[in-house]
Amino acid sequence: MTHHRETPSGWRRPAGPAVVAAVAGVAGWGFHRVFPGTELLLAVVPAALAPAFVAALTSRRPLWLALALDVVVWLAGTIPLYQGLQPTLLADVANSWQALLTTLLPAQPEPQLLVLVHTLVWAAATIGAETLARTRTRIAAAIPAIIVYGVALLLGVDGEGSNLPVAAALFVLIAALAVLRDDRPPVWLLAGIPAAAALAALALVAGPLLPIAGQPYNPRDNADLPPPVRVDSVSPLDRVSAWLQIPDRELFTVKADKPLNWRLAVLDRYDGVRWTSGARFQPTGGRVPDGDWTGKTETVRQKVTFDGLPGTWLPAAERPEEVSGVRGLAVDPESGALLAGAKPAKGFSYEVTSLVAEPSKEELLAATPVHDPNLTAFPAGPQEQLFRRLAQEATKGADAPIKQAYRLQSYLRTNAGYDVTAPPGHSLKGLEFFLQTTHRGTSEQFATTFALMARTLGLPSRVVVGFRPGQASGGIYHVKSGHVMAWAEIKFDKLGWRPFYPTPDRSGAKDDHDVVSSAIEESEQLEGEFGQGGSDKPKTSKPQATGNGEEPASGPSPWLIAAVAGGVLLVGCAAVVVALPWWRRRTRRRAQGPEQRVLGAWWQTCDDLGLKGQYALTAEDVITRHDGDTRHGGHLRTRHNDEISTHLRPLAEISNYVRYAPDAVTEDAATAAWQRSDAIRRAVRTRTPLTTRLRNRLLLR
Questions:
Q1: Which stretches of sequence are listed as region Disordered (predicted)?
Q2: Considering just the CA atoms, what is the radius of gyration of the chain in Å?
Q3: How confident is the model over 398-426, as pLDDT tens digits?
C-alpha cells in the first residue's frame, strides 16, 4: 500500500482552507487605508472565499483543473465590481497600480482600481489553498497573503488609519494555521491562539515606537505624476470680461460659515499671450494635501450648489482640506485647485472644508519669497523692460519682499481705473496698451499686470480666478457672473501663497467685497509698521535660477532598494533552506545520552524517507510502508530500496530497544544507529531525482 501524504481528517480538513481564506481576506483588508469604505469588502470577500472552496472540491483532481476553475472564479468576482463584464478588465489590472500611485488617498472606490485588490487577494487565496491541499508544509500557504499585505502597506502608507490591527490578526491566523498543520490536539489551539494574540497585542504597542514607523517609505514620492493638461476649452480668465457684461447670471450658491473669496482656477504659466494652469491633477477620494502654511488657521465649511457655472473647475475657499460628494474628484496638491471628472449638472452640490490661514503681523513682516524660477519666468519680448521699470518705480524704497508687493498693489490701485467695458485680453501687447495708454481695465488686466511686474522683482507669482462672496440671503451666498474677479498671489517661504488685490474699487457702485476691503486695510496697517522700523526688516532675496527649476534628486533609487531587499530576502531564504536541515541533523547526532542519539538517528531516517513529523509510527509501520514502495517501484528504485531495507530493519530494532530499555543503550549502539541512518540517507538521495530533492528542500520537508 502506497502512502503519498497524510490527509487531514475530521474538523481539521475544513478548518485549514477556512484559515487560509481568512488570512487572504485579512491581508486584503490591509487596503482599508487606500479604500476606507465598505466597497472594499466587495472586492476582498469573494476573492478570499471562492479559491478555498475550489481547492477543497478539487484536492484529488489535477492541479490544472483547479487553476482553470480559479480563473473562472476570478472573472466571476469582477462582475459585481463592474456591474457586468468589462472588456478592459485585463488593461485595468495592468494599469491600476500606476493609477493608485498617482492617487491622493483615500482613493475613490472605482472598479478599475478595486480590481487590483480583488486580483491580489484571489491570487493569494488560490496559491495558499492549493499549497495547503497538495503539500505538507505548515505556514507556506500564508506567504502569498503576507506579500499582499506588504503591497497594501506600500500603497496605503499615507492613508488614514492604522494597519497594526491587521498585522496582529494575520499573526494570530498564521499561528492557528501552524498549529492545525502540526497535527496538535485541539487543546493546543486553546493555548496557542491566546498566546499568539498576546504577542500580537505587544506588537500593537511596540510597532508605533519603531524608527521606521515615523517616516515609512512612500512609493508615491517617486511616482511619475500625470503631465499638466488643459482643463477647459475656454480659460476662466478669458471669461472674466464676458461674465461682467452679463452680471446677473446665476452661477452657484454657497452655504458657508462666513463670506470669503471662492477661488475657481489657479493659473501659473504665462507664454506672452495667455495665462494657463500647470496643475498636475491627481485623483482623490476627498482628501486635499496640506499646503505650506502650518500656523494658525480658521476652519470654514461650505456647501456649494451649481446653477449655471460652466466647465469642470469646482469653486471653494482657500485652502480646501476635505471634499465630499464629488465623483471623479481630482486635486492639484500644489494649489489646492479642485476639478470634477465630468461637467457638473445644474443642482449638483458638494461639501468642502477649508483652512483659511491667519498669519500674525510678525510672520507677514518676516516673509521671504521662495526660490522657483518657473514662477518668476517672464516671456521674451520688449515689454519686460517696461514692466521692470514701472515695478522698480512703484516699489522704490521698499526693502522687504512683502513691502514691495504691497507697494505694487497700491500703485496699480491708484494709477489706473476699473472699467467693465475695457477691451478683454491679457497678452503682453494688450497689457502694454493698458499701462501706457488706457489705464482702464477689469480685474483680468490688473491681476495679470501685477503678477508680471512682481516677477521682474524676483517675486514668484500666479493669477487666481474666482468670485467675491456674493449676495447673502439667509446664510446662503448667491454668486452671479458679475461677482467674478481675478487676483494675484505671491509665494513666501513657510507662509505659502498670499493674495494681493491690485484691482481698484468700482466707482459709482457699492462694493460688497468685504474680503478685499479687509485685505487692503490690513496691508495699509502693515505699511505703517514698515515706516516705523523698515531698516530691521529682511532684504529682498533674489536667488539665482539653476536653469531648469529642478533640484537634484537625493537618495538611492527605490528600484535599487527593492532589488537589494529582494536579493537579501533570497539569500536569507537560501541560507535557511541550506542551514536548517543541516542544523537539525547535527543537533540529533550530538544529543545528550546514547539513547537520545539513537532516537535522533531514527527520526532522521523517518525524515529522509518522507515521513517527517510522523515519529509516532512504530518501527514496523515504517518498514511496512517502505516495503510497499519497494513492491511498486521500478527496477532501479527497487535496487536502492533493497539497500535501504538492508539498514532499515537493524536500525528499527535498535530504536525499539531504546524505546523499551533506554538505560541499557550503549555508545556503540548509538554509533551503529547513525551509521545505518547515514547509509539510508545516501540510498534515498541516490534514488530521488534532483528536482524532487530541490523541491523538498525549498519546502523545508
A1: 523-555
A2: 37
A3: 888 988 999 999 999 999 999 999 999 99
